[in-house]
C-alpha cells in the first residue's frame, strides 16, 4: 500500500473525483509574466500508477505525448471501441503512467505573492506533487488545470515539481473520441504569480448595439477581501464606468457578504464596429483591480468582439443575419507531435480554412487549444465549442450512471468558463456520441443559466426529435443525415429549430461527392443553414518504415505535397503492431497529414464563393454578392475567356460596388470571336489587398459561365490507311503498350469499400474479368471487334469499331451491361502508353482532380500538368487523379512527340502511372511503384464518389447503370 495520499485515493478509478485542490476555471490570461516550463523533463514510464519508481530517468519533451517520443507505449487508433475490455469505470491493470519531474527555480521576486501552477492539458489523470508533497489532482484531458502552490514553494529556492500522468482512467470512458489514443502532457506548463488580491475571473458581454458589460470576480488569497478594492477598465483607451447600480444592489442585498468580490464595469460604444466572421473587428479591453490606495493589484487583458447570437424561429442569427455555416470539424492534430500543436501550426490551419471558404469550426470533440479561439476571433470563424465528453463505446451505460454526473457538468462548465469571452464562440456543444441522459440535461441547465447569450447543441439530444422543444439542443444538429431527409424536414411545416448538421460529407480518401448538391439545397431552402464537414485532418502519423517507430519531433521536414519522404509513411490504425484497430478510418480529412489540401478544398472554395456569376445575358454578366456583411471592395477580378480552339484572353474586371445580396450587370469585356469553338468566361477573383489570412492576389474563387457550346465534330474517313489489330482484335499502335480495352472497375475508394460497393464488384468479378473475342471483322480502313467480358455477375458485350480518319484513328465503342450489373464503377476504355510521355495538356475541367459529383470547383479551360502531379496520394491508395469534363488532351514527351485524343463529348479521364489493380493491391502510398508508361482511362460514365464511408452514398443521377453505353474518341500521333 502506498503512503502517497494522491495514489492512495486511486483517482483513476473514481469517476466521482473530477479534481482535488484544482482552482476554478477562469478566463484570465496569465501567459504574460509566467515562467514557462516547456522543454525536456526527467521522465519514467511506469507500467501502472502504483508501480515503484525506478532508479533510471530518461527524458521527455513537454508539451508532448510520450507515445511519439521513443517509448514502447505506441499510439493506437480505435474509433468507437475502447482499447480495453473493462466496463466503466474500470480500467486495466496495465496502465502506462508517465512520471515527469523537473527542478524549478521559483523567482525570489515572487515572495509574498500567490503562486499558481498551470498544466495546459494532461491525459487522462494528472497528479501533482511539489517536493514530494501532494498538490492536486485533475481530470478533463483537454482543459488546463491550475493549482495554488503558494504554501508549497519558497521563492528564491529550488523546488522539485512532479507531474504524474495516468493514461487509463474512469475518464477514458468519456474521452472515447474517434482519434489516436496517446498519453502525456499535451499543452504548455506555466508557473505564474499574482498579488494575493487578484482577479479570479472576468466575464465580458459585448452586444452588437455597442453595449459592453464586464463582470469581475475578485478574490484575496487570505480569504475575506480587504476593504476598499475597486476595478477600472478601458476599451481602446476609453475608460469604462463602474456600474453603480450593480454595486448599490449588492450593498442592499443582505445576502451579499464582503466576500462576494464582484464588480461590474460598463460602457456603450457609439458607432460600434461589430464582429462577424467576415469582418472580425476586435477592441482591446484592459481591466485593472486596485487596492484601496489606488495602486494596481492585478490586470487582465481581453480582446472584445461586439456581436449578438440568437435563434429566431428556425434561423440562427449572428447580428440579425441568417449566416450560412460553412464549417469543418477540427481535432488538435500534428503528424509529429500528436495532440500538441503550436501557435504557428494553429494559425496555418485557420489560414488555410479561410482561404478555402470555411467560416466555422466545430472543435471536435473537446475544447481545442486555447490559441485556436484567439485566432478564430482574429481571423473570423464561428466556433461551436464542444465539451470533452464522448462515451461512444459505453454511451448508454454512462449517460445515466450517477457516478459520472459530476464529470459531465464539470466538463461543460469548465469549457464555458474558459471560452465565454470569445466572440468566435457562437454555440456550446455538450459533447459527442454519448447517448442522451440526465447528465446532459444537467450540463445544459448549468450552461444556459451561466451563459444565456448562446444556444446549446447536442447531437445525441437532437436525435430524439429535430423539433422537440424539451431536449438539450437548441439546434437540430444531426450527423450524416441524407439531404432528402433534411429537405423534407425543412418543408414539413414542423421545423422549429435551425438545421445545421454537426457532421456531414465524410472526407475519407477520395470523397465528398454531392457537396455541390448539398449547397444548392441549403442556399435555396429556408431552414437549412449549413453544416460541418467531417473533418479537417487526415490523422496520419509520420512513421519510419524500417522499424515502425513514429518519427516524432525529429521528422520535421520529412514530408511535403501530401507524401512522406522515402523510408517514411503516414501511419494509420494497425501500423503500430496492434491487431485490433479501425484502420484508415482515421484518415478522413480535407487535408493530408502535412496540411496539403485535397482536391475537395477547391470544390469547397467555389461553393463558398463570395461573388458569383448569377447569369449571362447579351447585355453582360450579372454578378452577385453572396456574403452576409461585406461589400466587394476587398476583391479584385480578372476575366478569362477560354476558347476550345483558340487562345485564352484576359482582361481586368471592374467589380461593382455591391452590398450583400445585391446583383448588378457588368458589360462583357470581350467581343466573342466568331471562331474558336466552345467558349467559357471565368472571373478570377483574388484579394485586392492583404487580408490577415491571405496576401494580396490570393485566389478567392473562380466563378464561370459558358458563353458558347461546342459544335459537332465532322470526321473524314481515310480508307486508304489500314487499321492494325492482332488476332485478338486488339489495336496495334506504336505509342500504346496496351490496346484500348473495356474497363468496368476502379480501385475501390474508401467510400466504395465501406459502402459495400467494392465487395459487390468483387463478387461480380469486375476486378478480374475474362475477355472472349466473339468476332473480328476487317474492312478497308476499319476493324470491328466484338468481345464479351465474362464476369461472375454477368456478361458485358463490347463492340469496338476502329476507323482510319484524317486525324488518325476514330474509336467508336459500345458496351451493353446486363441488368445484373446495375451499379458499376465505370464504363470506359483503358489503354497504356510507351514510357516517356510526361506532360498532360487538356481542355476540360481542372486543373485539380474532379469527379462527376465533385466537379463544381474545377473550371473549364486549357490546363497542363506533369503526369506525376496528376495523381492524388490518398493515404490508402485508391481511385485517384480523375478529371471531369475533359474534351480533348495531348500526352507528350519533352521533345513534343506523343499522342492527342479528342472525345465525342466531355468525359471523365484519368492519366496516371498506376493500373487500378496496382492501387488496390497495396495499403500505403509508399508501396506503389509507378509504371514506366501512362495508364489512361477514358470513361463514358464514371460513378460518383458519394460519402458512403460514413453517411449517404452518391445520388442516383451519379450512378453508372446497366444498359447500353456508347462513346467515341479519336487518337492521333503528335
Ligand atoms: C462520427 C463521430 O462523431 C466522429 O468522431 C467520427 O467518428 C465520424 O463519425 C466518422 O469519421 S460517429 C459515426 C459512428 C457516425
TrEMBL record:
Coiled coil: none annotated. Its EC number is 3.2.1.23. Keywords: Glycosidase, Hydrolase. InterPro entries: B-gal_small/dom_5 (IPR004199), Bact_Beta-galactosidase (IPR050347), Beta-gal/glucu_dom_sf (IPR036156), Gal_mutarotase_sf_dom (IPR011013), Galactose-bd-like_sf (IPR008979), GH (IPR017853), GH-type_carb-bd (IPR014718), Glyco_hydro_2 (IPR006101). It catalyses: Hydrolysis of terminal non-reducing beta-D-galactose residues in beta-D-galactosides. The keyword Hydrolase applies. Residues 713-972 form the Beta galactosidase small chain/ domain. Belongs to the glycosyl hydrolase 2 family. This is Beta-galactosidase.
